[in-house]
Amino acid sequence: MTKKDDSKEVASDAIEDEGLEVTSNVADDELHKQLEECENKYRRALADYQNLQKRVGEEKQDWVRAANRELLLRLLPVLDTLMLASQHVDDQGLKVSINQFLDALKNEGVKRIETGGKDFDPHLMECVSIEEGGENKVLEETRTGYMIYDKILRPAQVKVGKGE
């Protein structure tokens, strides 16, 4: 072979190598794009799954709270009766039972609505009568009200003053 032929051969080898390199770079770029797409799909699927788990957990809690609420609404009249009985009977066992009942309610997140000496709040209280007394002031509580999870379980029933 002559020098010219050798240089042509080397040049064609270089061109072929560059072509392969360009082709492999394009293939690498496509693979990287596909990998990124797969990673993004994975991340979205994982985020969707985590959101689903969170939502299902919250819905489960809501179901439990609703069931607890219904049970508590059926138990509150029993507590009312026990408290009424304690006003007429001086029995230490009855007082202990009431305190245990109140502690159990407290442990479940139930709080008593405080009404004594406060202004009437229609969001927390029901007015059962209006009598002489300070305007819009709670004069007497006729039935205790309770809240659970910062929501009204049962509003307090009160007598309200109409003012002078």
Classify the secondary structure makeup into a structural class.
alpha+beta
How many E-type strands? Answer: 6
Main CATH class of the domain at 113-164: Mainly Beta
Overall 3D form: elongated
Strand content: 15-25%
The CATH architecture of the domain at 113-164 comes to Roll
The Cα radius of gyration reads 38 Å
Number of helices: 2
Strand order across the largest sheet: 1-4-5
Give start-end ranges of low-pLDDT stretches: none
Q: Main β-sheet: number of strands, strand sense, barrel status?
A: 3 strands, antiparallel
What is the H-and-E element order? Answer: HHEEEEEE
CATH superfamily of the domain at 113-164: Head domain of nucleotide exchange factor GrpE
The helix fraction, in percent, is: 55-70%
Task: Characterise the protein shown here.
The chain is of the alpha+beta class and about 160 residues long. It has a domain at about 115-164: Roll (Nucleotide Exchange Factor Grpe, Chain A, domain 2), CATH 2.30.22. The protein contains two helices and six strands, in the order ααββββββ. The protein has helices at about 5-90, 90-105; strands at about 110, 125-130, 140-145, 145-150, 150-155, 155-160. The chain has a three-stranded antiparallel β-sheet. It is elongated, with a radius of gyration of 38 Å. The model has no long low-confidence stretch (mean pLDDT about 85).
Which helices and strands occur, and which strands form pairs?
Blueprint: H1 3-88, H2 92-107, E1 110-112, E2 125-131, E3 138-143, E4 146-148, E5 151-154, E6 156-161
Parallel strand pairs: 2-6
Antiparallel strand pairs: 1-4, 3-6, 4-5
